Please model this.
Amino acid sequence: MTEPLVVPSVLPADFARLGEEVRELCEAGVDRIQWDVMDGVFVPNLTFGPDVIAAARPYSTVGFEAHLMVVEPDELLGRYVDAGCELVIVHAEACRHLHRTLARIRDLGARSGVALNPHTPVDTVAHVLAETDLVLAMTVNPGFGGQAYLAAVEPKIARLRRMIDESGRPIELEVDGGVTDKTIRAASAAGADVFISGSWMYAYPDGKAAAVKRLRAAAKEEAA
Model:
């Protein structure tokens, strides 16, 4: 297993001080930072536009990833890359021509990712792995933070792991939703190597740096 990556979502952050929140996450030792972009249509919530992300970018020493939970991602790809997102993740459920969308992200100079909702079959991404740098298995239904981890997704994570390994491509396998120092173990055992944490990390009593270390250690222990 590669070194597990711990990536916080800024969804639980204090939006009035996003720059400082980003700086604190970097100081805590995170591997990159995720921006949950919601449009109020694909999911019933509204969050960040590209201008907000661009304003926070100078505060960061790690990469940004944009998780686009939107109905028309193709219209927005360039703006999020320009805002400083090195990785752009789109939902398979929102893309009419997924192959073309992923290729477009790469053409813009970013890495491409594709997310699958809990109910979406693994085979949905079987024929786009050549255009994909990351597959995200959602372990909650997208739209809100603080939801409980869906253990029923673990067999799907394992199938994605096998599919990626058989492809021979260096594709990251990310999980997002309800990740704690307990649930990360099963997700890691199933084959995930990138872990999004939001509400749990922000609420950890010993602070964000201790939370990052705890998550990384738990993922490595289970994989071993």
